[in-house]
Structure formats: C-alpha cells, structure tokens
C-alpha cells in the first residue's frame, strides 16, 4: 500500500486508539503501583499492542517521516521519556506510558502524510472532533442517568453542588470543560464560515457544558482561544465590544467581588489562589525532588505519581505539564517539550497569518485556537503529554500538514 491509499486504514487505527483511551475506573496510586495491570486497563494494553502491530510495518518502511519538521522534536521528546525508564522509580510504567505517547504521535504523522489534499486532512480533523463530541455526549448521558455520580464533589457550579464530570467513561470536570471549550471554538469558527444555525446551537450546548463542569482551566483557556479566533478572523468590532464590557466589569468593585466569588466555586480564598492546593504540591516537589535531580528527573509518568504523590490520595499526576515533565525527565525533557510547543505554535501562527482569504483558513485558525487553549491549560494540567489527549495530537498533526505542504511547494 502507498501512503496515499492508507487513510481509511489509519482511520480504523484511530478508532482503536480512541477505545484504548477510555478510562473505565479512576484508580488510586496505591492500587496502580501494586497492580499495574488489571482488568480495567486490559483494553488499553490490547489496543496499543494491536495498533503497534498494524502500524509497525508502515513506520519501518518510512522511518524518515518521524524526524521531519515538528515531528523531529516530538520524537526526541518521546524517546527521551522512554530512555528515562532506565533510572525511573517504576521502569516498566515509564517505558509503557512513554511508548503509547510515541505511538499516537507516529499514528498522527502517517495520518497526515496519507492525507492527499486539504479535504482528506479535514476529514481527519473532524474524526477527532467527532470523538470529543461523543465523549461529551456520554457525559450528558451520565448526568441524566446517574446525576449524583455525574455531579459528585465538594465544589459548586452554576447549577448545583458538584461539578459535571463523566460517569462512564470517567472524565474529570476539568477535561469536560476543556473539551467543551475546544468544540465551542470550532462551533464559532464553522459558524463564521457557513452561517449555519446548527453551529450556534452547538456553541450554546458547549457553553452550558463548560459552566456546569466549571473547570477553570478550560474556561480561561476558552477565553484566550476566543481572543485568538477573533483576531485572526478580523472580528475587531466584536473584540472591542467584549474587551470594553470586560473592563467595565473589572473596574466595578461590586462586580469583581461577584466574579471572584463565582470563580472560587465555594473554595476558601487561600485554596483559590493556590490553584486548589497545586502550589503546595509543586513547592514540595521542587524542594524534595527537582532540586536534587534537575537534569534527568526520576522517570517520566512515574516520578510524579509514585514518588512525589505516593502519600497523597486522589491525584494521579502533578496537575501541570511542566512540573510533571521536569520531575519525570528533568531539564532535558523541559527543553525538548518547549522546543516542540514553539515549533507547533510557530507553524500554526505563520500559516494563519499568511493564509487569510484561503478557503481552508478557518480550519487552521481553529486549530491554533485549540493549541492556545491547551497551552493555557498545560500550566495546571497534563494536557500536552498523555496519549489520550487527542486535541494535542490534532495540533501536532496540523503543524505537520503545514510543514508537508511547505516542502511540496518548496521543491516543485
């Protein structure tokens, strides 16, 4: 098979990856450490194994594609994380989690190079959007069928006590909010392009979902992404109006108090300003681990969960991409991830700036907006480094598509 004939084949592999990424049960750290492989994760292991076999031949034949453009920096980062398994506190955990991250990156690469034109590539974008929309659909099903589980927790949303999260599959409220924010941006972008009222309906559903989940990182990420969307679509009047209203709200003391109370979700003031306890954990990680092994860390994916958080119940990560990486793979990992994010952002930004007026301009812009949302979230989540954060791979893939087309025209 040629690359151009592989798109449908690779789409099937994406479906397998989607199913593999479903979280059936949120496991505590102690359970994950004593029983790394359980019935609740067998589908994940089997899916990764199956995709490895089905994709392996293609990768071996065209290995050079893994070191072209932004993919070079992704491969270096992912391989460095695998290498960190040699000194990891849980070597097999580090090796496996790093490998599945690399595998989805490879699947992304070959999906992009199998896209013969922009229409095929957009089908791949839409495939990921459809899966994210399906996940949000399951969240709403859970909210109607098991409302007590769907709205579990001590914090308060605009509707009731508890924040909207996924019952089956398990999706935390911050991810629900981020998914809704991303699809909200897509809805606005598609509405600008088509003027179809269905996108307004989709936007309304996304906003309601965001507010019920009330993941603050998702909401703030959405706000930054909306700013980028308005600028690149040259909606300056809308931008000025929103900015003016926001400034009016901020300069009113009464509104500031209401806004702060609203964003606290029932938390104490110190909890709010310490990012729900994250700052305390990050400080602990720095003083006890980062400062002692700053260059190479203690093993990707394992150091945060099984070393820093070994006595902290309820967290499976350090809730920050950057803290997680520097604890796990050290300063070298941070440098590689930084170069990767800059490379992706630069490719998307330049394309959006230069492609204004092109038919596909809005598709590039919406991906740049989603990447902006992910970067904002990365401060307080692991949105850039897990294999089932498909929106990140969507952004990586789009930057590769831009690079691929630049190379094609360069040598024509």
What can you see in these coordinates?
- By secondary structure, the protein is mostly helical.
- It has one domain (3-410).
- The protein is built from 18 helices and no strands.
- The chain has helices at 7-20, 29-34, 42-61, 70-83, 91-113, 118-145, 147-150, 173-194, 197-213, 216-232, 236-251, 253-264, 269-273, 278-290, 303-308, 321-354, 361-378, 390-410.
- Helix 1 (7-20) runs antiparallel to helix 3, helix 4 (70-83) runs antiparallel to helix 16 (321-354) and helix 16 (321-354) packs across helix 18 (390-410).
- The longest helix has 34 residues, at 321-354.
- It is globular, with a radius of gyration of 21 Å.
- The model has no long low-confidence stretch (mean pLDDT 89).
């Amino acid at each position: 098979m040629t690359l151009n004939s592989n798109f449908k084949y690779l789409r099937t592999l994406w479906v397998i990856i989607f199913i593999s990424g479903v979280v059936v049960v949120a496991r505590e750290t102690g359970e994950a450490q004593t029983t790394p492989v359980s019935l609740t994760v067998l589908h994940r292991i089997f899916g990764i194994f199956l995709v490895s076999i089905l994709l392996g031949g293609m990768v071996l034949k065209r290995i050079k594609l893994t070191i072209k453009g932004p993919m070079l920096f992704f491969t270096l980062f992912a391989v460095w994380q695998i290498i960190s398994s040699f000194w990891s506190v849980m070597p097999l955990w580090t090796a496996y989690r790093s490998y599945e991250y690399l595998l989805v990156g490879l699947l992304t690469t070959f999906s992009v190079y199998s896209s013969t034109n922009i229409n095929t590539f957009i089908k791949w974008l839409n495939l990921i959007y459809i899966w994210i929309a399906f996940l949000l659909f399951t969240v709403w099903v859970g909210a109607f069928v098991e409302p007590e589980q769907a709205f579990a927790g001590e914090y308060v949303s605009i509707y009731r006590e508890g924040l909207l999260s996924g019952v089956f599959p398990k999706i935390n409220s911050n991810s629900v909010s981020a998914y809704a924010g991303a699809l909200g941006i897509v809805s606005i972008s598609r509405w600008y392009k088509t003027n179809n009222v269905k996108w307004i309906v989709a936007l309304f559903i996304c906003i309601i979902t965001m507010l019920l989940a009330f993941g603050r990182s998702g909401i703030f990420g959405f706000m930054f992404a909306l700013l980028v969307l308005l600028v690149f679509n040259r909606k300056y009047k809308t931008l000025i109006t929103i900015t003016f209203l926001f400034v009016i709200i901020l300069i009113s003391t009464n509104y500031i108090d209401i806004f702060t109370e609203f964003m606290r979700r029932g938390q104490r003031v110190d909890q709010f300003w310490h990012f729900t306890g994250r700052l305390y954990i990050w400080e602990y990680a720095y003083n006890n681990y980062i400062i002692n092994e700053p260059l190479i860390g203690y093993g990707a994916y394992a150091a945060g969960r099984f070393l820093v958080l070994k006595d902290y119940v309820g967290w499976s990560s350090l809730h920050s991409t950057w803290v997680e990486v520097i604890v796990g793979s050290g300063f070298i990992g941070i440098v590689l991830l930084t170069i990767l994010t800059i490379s992706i952002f630069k490719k998307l930004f330049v394309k959006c700036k230069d492609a204004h007026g092109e038919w596909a301009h809005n598709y590039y812009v919406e991906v740049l907006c989603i990447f902006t949302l992910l970067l904002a979230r990365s401060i307080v989540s692991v949105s850039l480094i897990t294999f089932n954060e498909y929106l990140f791979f969507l952004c990586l893939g789009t930057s590769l598509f831009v690079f691929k087309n630049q190379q094609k025209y360069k040598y024509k």
